[in-house]
Specification:
alpha/beta, D-Maltodextrin-Binding Protein, domain 2, five-stranded mixed beta sheet, six-stranded mixed beta sheet
């Protein structure tokens, strides 16, 4: 009887341990079980909010549930990142945000509230987007080489505008690589720099793609170069800083993120659904409209890129002499 009981116990334990494995696919099949929240780190009406709400609208029929956009603003995105990381890891809270900023904030802040590498999981990548070096439309220089020659002559009297960490790093690398003395002027938003740029108070600026493209279309700015290592499909006419002799690989990217403990089948399902939207003709057209290229990866590929970016930002922030907050 004792041996029989032991055998039955072992069989029972084996069956019990198999239950979670068998249940995992069912988790994805049953998901979602209630309304889903898309978290946005910026206010309603902002450029980021437009992207989040567009994806919320397109994901609603695929998820079969109401998708609510929650704007959790503050601390350069840290508030929204922490809110996501601390939420229940069941796929019902999804952070649609620039993963670039999530990586950068690991070094921009002395005590970041979240260890992104360990607490945030990339469910799906969405796009890649450039930072753009822009000048006023009536500026005499037509190329980066002409601007560089002018800035060298102007020395420490030259100045340039930035409004976010990507622009600050891009401007700093340009300054240092070409031996320039241009003084950085940091603005709260890209729009705040426009008057100084168009009046000639600034010689150039390194600004985000959405603002730069919209102003270029209105002929208020001229774009000389972009920050990614390769030309963008959406704006192939703009050369990269790298091909113009200023090596850099600065690229912005949006992603759908969830808490790290989210079950893998749910992460995989979200990856499939987001990729379906991003890879559609409508998705490509939308992302192209904000001067970005669709970017589809697996969760593992997205997570690996996040880890790479966290390491890169440590180097870039030191190079740009940005003091952590």
């Amino acid at each position: 009887m004792q041996n029989l009981s032991r055998r039955h116990v072992i069989q029972g334990l084996s069956a019990a341990t198999a239950v979670p494995t068998l249940a995992m696919p069912a988790i994805a099949q049953d998901y979602p079980t209630r309304d889903v929240s898309f978290v946005c780190a910026f206010p309603a009406g902002s450029g980021a909010d437009v992207i989040v709400r567009w994806y919320a609208e397109k994901m609603r029929p695929l998820l079969g549930r109401t998708v609510i956009v929650e704007n959790k603003t503050g601390a350069i995105g840290n508030l929204a990142t922490e809110y996501t990381a601390r939420s229940k890891p069941d796929g019902h809270t999804i952070y649609v945000h620039g993963a670039t900023a999530v990586a950068a904030n690991m070094t921009l802040f002395k005590r970041p509230p979240v260890d992104a590498e360990k607490e945030i999981q990339i469910a799906a990548t969405i796009n890649k987007q450039p930072t753009m070096l822009v000048v006023r439309p009536d500026a005499p220089w037509q190329t980066l080489a002409e601007l560089t020659a002018y800035l060298k002559q102007k020395g420490a009297k030259a100045s340039y505008g930035t409004s976010n960490p990507l622009g600050r790093v891009m401007g700093s690398i340009y300054n240092q690589t070409m031996g320039l003395e241009a003084v950085e002027v940091v603005y709260r938003t890209a729009g705040d720099s426009l008057n100084d740029l168009t009046s000639g108070a600034l010689d150039f600026a390194t600004l985000d793609n959405i603002f730069s493209i919209s102003q270029e279309r209105e002929k208020r700015l001229r774009i000389l170069a972009i920050s990614p290592p390769e030309r963008m499909q959406v704006v192939p006419q703009f050369p990269t800083m790298t091909e113009l002799g200023v090596p850099m690989k600065i690229v912005g990217w949006f992603a759908a993120m969830v808490p790290m403990a989210t079950p893998r089948p749910i992460v995989e399902r979200l990856n499939k659904l987001f990729n379906e939207v991003t890879g559609s003709a409508e998705g490509k057209a939308f992302l192209n409209s904000v001067a970005s290229d669709p970017w589809i990866t697996t969760p593992d590929e997205g997570q690996a890129f996040l880890r790479e970016q966290i390491a890169d930002w440590k180097t870039w922030i030191t190079q740009a002499k940005i003091e952590p907050q």
